[in-house]
Write a structure and sequence with these properties.
Length: 183
């Protein structure tokens, strides 16, 4: 059986700081900045809670990627979640995003690329979208450690347009893999 290709399922952006992001036909990634027209773009932190702590921190959360397989998993638990609903910019299918090492480069479409910086740390706002969903996106692995399933965060290395249906190519970093940590 042939492996299924890794693809972009959906893209989303929002100029405001809202929990869900509306879907778009395409998003334009800008190197070192993020997604054109998205509230979380910038060289320094843009997430409100992080700005309140220290607005000079580098923005390691320019682009949020989420695996569509999570929607299938939470649907089995009775939750209806679709692309953009929990704030991601790029929804993928066919990639184990959570299993990637820190520093992995994801090539999106014809020219864009992002470097994975860490895990999204799901917050209480998820329960505002659908009560009980936070528990569904937080789990425990075999050794009892918290398993964060809310996708990965990244910074833009090379700009370009990204659209649903675009291929995603994974480039693993050299050296010993470093597991993803929350950013």
């Amino acid at each position: 059986m042939e492996a299924q290709p890794s693809v972009v399922v959906a893209v989303a952006r929002d100029e405001g700081h809202h929990f869900s992001k509306p879907l778009a036909d395409e998003v334009v990634l800008v190197a070192g900045w993020g997604i054109e027209g998205d509230a979380h773009a910038g060289t320094t932190v843009q997430h409100r809670s992080r700005v309140a702590r220290d607005p000079s921190q580098p923005n390691l959360r320019q682009v949020h990627l989420l695996h569509a397989e999570l929607f299938d998993e939470v649907a089995a638990a009775g939750f209806a979640v679709s692309p953009g609903d929990i704030g991601e910019n790029v929804t993928t299918r066919g990639i184990d995003l959570l299993g990637l090492p820190t520093g992995t480069v994801l090539h999106l479409g014809e020219s864009a690329s992002v470097r994975v910086t860490g895990l999204r740390n799901p917050c209480q706002q998820i329960n505002g979208f659908e009560p009980g969903l936070l528990k569904a996106v937080l789990g425990r692995d075999e050794d009892g450690s918290v398993e964060r399933k809310g996708g990965v965060m990244s910074v833009v290395l090379t700009g370009g347009a990204v659209r649903p249906g675009d291929a995603v190519r994974v480039e693993l970093p050299a050296g010993a893999p470093e597991p993803l940590q929350p950013v």
